[in-house]
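STRUCTURE:
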């Protein structure tokens, strides 16, 4: 803290360092006497000099007149010089006073700006605190109002966008337990309590959907994007969320619960979805290029025409997933694709080492140069599939349907199991 005496001393005033002391009252008389004295001495010296000259009467008179003129000029010149000094002094004083007034004005403007800035920051802080408090309300309507207030604040105050984004993400990461199932012999009171809990749960889901809409609407790459907006939704409860066409590129959804979520046409490019639960999720035409889906649960997920180019799906669970016409040129090492639908899927160069493709439907799938070492293709339907240059070393093709499949230049060894393989005259490149 700065005491009041120091604060007062540091504040510039018009008088500080500018006002000069006035000239003493005796200045003008003394200067006049000095000028007259100098004039008199000069006149006397000139008079004596003239007298010492041998001049005629007329010449002497002329010389005396010139002496008086010279003395008068000296007196006038001295007075003029003093007047010029006074004028210069007055001008300098006025210039200093003007400069000091400008400093005072600039200081006043800075103080006003600082005051206005402090007031604006206090207002923003109050609005942020109020909206944050609303998120903790028991009433869904109040929580919704808080969300929209935060969005308006972020739109008008770019400096708060990152903090608002973090708050919304934290809100979505908060636990959101679903009401427990009631036993058949539940009492009327239990049924009523369960109905109330279900209503509150549904209201909270709607509130969370609104928070998600705000985040995706202002994704940094969106038209109304917030540059510093983070989308950090690891472990978030997003069951049944509607994220159709949402922009979630590079979003962190690690271990998030997206069961039955609608993600059709969503942009999940380079998103982190490791260990995420996407059971029965709707991902038709979704962009998952370069996404991290390591050990993600995609059981029964709809991935029709989804782009999984370069995605990491090592250890992912894709049991009964629909990957019809999907671009799955990805790392599927150890993935579980039991019963998956991969009809017309593009798996060119895909890494399917140790993948479980038991009873998977790979009809007309493009598996050119696919890496299927130790893959389990038991009972898989590979009719008319293209396995040109595919590596089937140690693969298990027991009871697989290879009618019309292309196996030209496919790689295999003596441990490749072909027991019960179904072929016909259209199967190309058979090695047996």
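SEQUENCE:
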């Amino acid at each position: 803290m700065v005491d009041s005496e120091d604060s007062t001393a540091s504040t510039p005033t018009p008088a500080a360092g500018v006002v000069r002391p006035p000239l003493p009252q005796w200045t003008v008389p003394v200067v006049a006497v000095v000028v007259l004295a100098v004039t008199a001495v000069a006149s006397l010296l000139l008079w004596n000099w003239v007298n010492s000259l041998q001049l005629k009467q007329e010449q002497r008179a002329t010389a005396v007149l010139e002496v008086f003129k010279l003395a008068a000029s000296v007196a006038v010149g001295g007075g003029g010089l003093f007047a010029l000094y006074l004028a210069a002094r007055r001008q300098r004083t006025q210039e200093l006073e003007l400069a000091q007034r400008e400093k005072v004005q600039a200081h006043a403007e800075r103080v006003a700006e600082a005051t206005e800035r402090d007031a604006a920051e206090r207002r923003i802080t109050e609005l942020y605190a109020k909206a944050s408090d609303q998120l903790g309300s028991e009433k869904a309507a109040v929580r919704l109002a808080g969300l929209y207030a935060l969005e308006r604040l972020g739109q008008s105050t770019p400096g708060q966008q990152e903090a608002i984004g973090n708050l919304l993400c934290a809100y979505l990461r908060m636990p959101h337990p679903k009401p427990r199932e009631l036993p058949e012999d539940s009492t009327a009171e239990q049924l009523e309590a369960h109905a109330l809990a279900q209503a509150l749960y549904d209201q909270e889901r709607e509130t969370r959907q609104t928070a998600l809409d705000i985040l995706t609407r202002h994704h940094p790459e969106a038209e109304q994007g917030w540059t510093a907006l983070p989308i950090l939704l690891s472990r978030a409860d997003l069951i049944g969320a509607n994220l159709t066409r949402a922009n979630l590129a590079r979003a962190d959804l690690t271990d998030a619960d997206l069961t039955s979520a609608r993600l059709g046409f969503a942009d999940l490019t380079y998103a982190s979805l490791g260990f995420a639960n996407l059971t029965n999720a709707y991902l038709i035409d979704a962009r998952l290029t370069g996404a991290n889906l390591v050990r993600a649960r995609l059981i029964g997920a709809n991935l029709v025409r989804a782009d999984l180019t370069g995605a990491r799906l090592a250890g992912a669970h894709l049991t009964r997933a629909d990957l019809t016409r999907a671009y799955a040129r990805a790392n599927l090492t150890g993935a579980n694709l039991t019963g998956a639908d991969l009809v017309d899927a593009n798996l060119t160069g895909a890494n399917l080492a140790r993948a479980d493709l038991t009873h998977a439907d790979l009809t007309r799938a493009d598996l050119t140069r696919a890496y299927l070492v130790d893959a389990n293709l038991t009972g898989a339907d590979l009719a008319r599939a293209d396995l040109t240059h595919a590596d089937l070393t140690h693969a298990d093709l027991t009871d697989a349907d290879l009618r019309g499949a292309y196996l030209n230049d496919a790689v295999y060894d003596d441990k490749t199991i072909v027991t019960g393989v179904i072929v016909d005259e259209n199967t190309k490149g058979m090695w047996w």
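REMARK: The two ends are 92 Å apart (CA to CA).
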